[in-house]
Amino acid sequence: MVANPVFCHTPNAILVRDDEGVYAIDREDLIKYSGRSSLIASGVIMRLLTEAFHDLSPNEVPHRDSIHVLSAFPGQGVRDGIEFITRAVTKGRFILDTKAGSDKAAPSPIGGRMYFEVAIGDRAMAYSYSEKLFDQKWFNEVLKNQMGTDNYETHEDYLVYKYGFLGRLLSDKHVFSEKKSVLVKRFETLTKH
Fold first, then answer.
1. Which of 49, 32, 31 is nearest to 41 (CA)?
2. CB neighbours of 105 closer than 8 A, spacing ≥ 6?
């Protein structure tokens, strides 16, 4: 038995509010919204928004209408997750810019990078997912198998890989290669519409 056991804490739910109250949204809710093919995307959103809400709104649950997001990753599951939690896509507070981000963000097999900016109110942060996690194996697996496989066993192997990857994504404390404050200015034009 370990004298002082250490446990990893993974994000279980994200709290967000609107004018009528607080909502708890978990990873299964994200999968129900965007589909089972978005398993890894659900983890990307849980880690990103858990980190961003902690960094940008540490003392209160953020209001959906105060959240803006820039994504350099064009994946539909990530976009769906951002929409489900923040309503930023339909409310005009979402920017897709596959050219944004630094070289510290892992490249994506479908274009762009694993780079995001989140603004809440008058503060904004950039988050670059690490190439140590989003490595060449992830790149190749997604490229080869995300749109379907030619047999059951290959798809089964891909699902095993995805669940293992999800576990690392949710628990690795070094998932971001870079986190930094950025200017909220790029989002100001969105709020004027």
1. 31
2. 72, 113, 114, 115, 128, 129, 177, 178
Q: DSSP labels for 2-68?
A: -SS--------EEEEEETTEEEEEEHHHHHHHH-GGGHHHHHHHHHHHHHHHHHH-TTSPPBGGGEE
Quote the pTM value: 0.91
Q: What are residue 130's phi and psi, to 5 degrees?
A: -75, 140
Residues 131-160, mean pLDDT to the nearest whole number: 91
pLDDT level of residue 12 (50, 70, 90 thresholds): confident
In terms of Cα–Cα distance, which of 68, 96, 79 is closest to 30?
Answer: 79
Sign of CA dihedral 171, 175, 179, 185: negative
